[in-house]
Amino acid sequence: MITNLVLLLLIGNNLICSAFQLQHSSRAKFGRIDTLRCSRENVPQRAFDRRSLFKYMSIHVSSGATAALISAPKPSNAIDSNHRTEGYDVQHTEREWAYILSGKQYHILRQGGTERPYSSILEDEERDGDYRCAGCDTPLFDSKAKFHSGTGWPSFATPLKGVEIENVNFIQANLFGAEIRCGTCGGHLGDVFNDGILFMNTPAFISGKRYCVDGAALIFHPADGGEDINGDLPPPVKK
Prior knowledge:
It contains 6 helices and 12 strands. β5 and β6 (155-156) form a beta hairpin. The longest helix has 21 residues, at 2-22. 21% of the residues lie in helices and 21% in strands. By secondary structure, the chain is an alpha+beta fold.
């Protein structure tokens, strides 16, 4: 029963992701990170996201003659987030962040935004190296954990210790995922989903996780000592 439920939740999450990618919609954003260092910052919701769809629906899960009704949690997104500055080692005023970061970087890291799929040069990056926070240069992901998910966003199977993960319940984790942030500056990175098992022959199949990251939040540091690549750059035009 539990195994069937988990599989149905994972498959349902994947189908929802696919439907929204076809509509060029943004990934789900939910910004309540349950840590003592964060305080509530009430900012009005500005964007429709995947959770808004579930505000008006429930999901029926059945196994044989048994059926369970699961109500979705209250929709939210990273803009409705806990404070992104308090308690973090690297702190700046919002005016300072706006000066330090590019427009795309600020939109993702400080406002919890979402870039369009296939809009970052890092989605196709395959060289050895590490991916760092565009706001504070904290190492976040290793290239060995990167894989092509087909979603249009840089995807990783596992994070480095610099990544902070939202603490959510079982249902929310499997339907909506959890927000991921830079643990040093509090910058929004993207979301982690429990559907890694769907990506066979990738590192995610082993970890069971898919860290779906906005490329603009990252800077790629090549292992060969080459020039750093800012993820807010668009991919090269294919001839």
